[in-house]
Amino acid sequence: MQLGMVGLGRMGGNMLRRLLERGHEPVGYDRAHAAREEARSRGAHTADGLAELARMLRPPRAVWMMVPHGAPVEATLEGLVPHLEAGDLIVDGGNSRWSDAAPRAERLAGRGIAFLDAGTSGGVWGLERGYCLMVGGPEDAYRRLEPVLAALAQEGGYARVGPSGAGHFVKMVHNAVEYGMLQAFGEGFEMMHAAPFPLELDRVAELWRHGSVVQSWLLDLLAAALARSPALAEVRGWVEDSGEGRWSLEYAVANAVPAGVLAQSLFARFASRQEESFAAKVIAALRREFGGHAVRGSAGGA
User: Fold this and answer.
1) Which of 4, 34, 89, 163 could form a cystine bridge with 63, CB 3.0-4.6 A?
2) Residue by residue, what is the 3-state secondary structure of 204-225?
3) Is 281 a catalytic residue?
4) Which of 171, 250, 275, 289 is catalytic?
5) pTM over 0.90
6) What's the rounded Cα separation, in Å, for the pair 192 and 196?
7) Residue among 52, 74, 178, 206 flagged as catalytic
């Protein structure tokens, strides 16, 4: 099947490669010249702009976007849609906010263009292992795209999960679950790092991979990381968030869904970015005031 792929970064570039390897005809576009050159070196056709991409695709066209959420998605749609026609199909495979999908689908439907929101999981390992694809949107558009979905996904790793917005909603919740799992592993291994006797954490991680109830792909990845660097000395404990954890927590609060693990793991990421916590300074100062407890001077003060 022929497919336009807009965005050839770590995810989009690997997805294009996987489609090539499975006999499909991807046509790639990325604003970065180097990304287009990399795709061409793999044997893919590439376009130098969105208008050219549309011309290179046979009607009815299908275009998959792998670009950051928000303004980049809107800019891509603005540049692409004027060159499409009724019967074409657009897929948003990035981490867009789920509530943006239905308005976009309605807007495009007015031009006769179908829209699918496809939550995409698998990271940089998707090229080799296959992706997990959570798709929202019309059933007929989903069926039309199914050959591409089957090529990209692991066996059993794709499904239409509901109407417009459902794909990105399920992916949002998926990422919220991921936040909690990562935090649990982090806290558990920090506890063992502080044990009253020496523990070889790489050996513990490897041990847990065999028959324990916490064995998982995340544990496989942690075991590999610790095998390379048992103390993780080259890694700073600064943890970003993609936005989906925040959206999940906003939804949980708005709908009275108890999501304490998500909240704690998201706030832990915020705390990881602080050089020094002002809240902790306030608490230390208050303990000094009411109890006469000693405080430690700052690095730059007395």
Assistant:
1) 4
2) HHHHHCCCCCCCCHHHHHHHHH
3) no
4) 171
5) yes
6) 9
7) 178
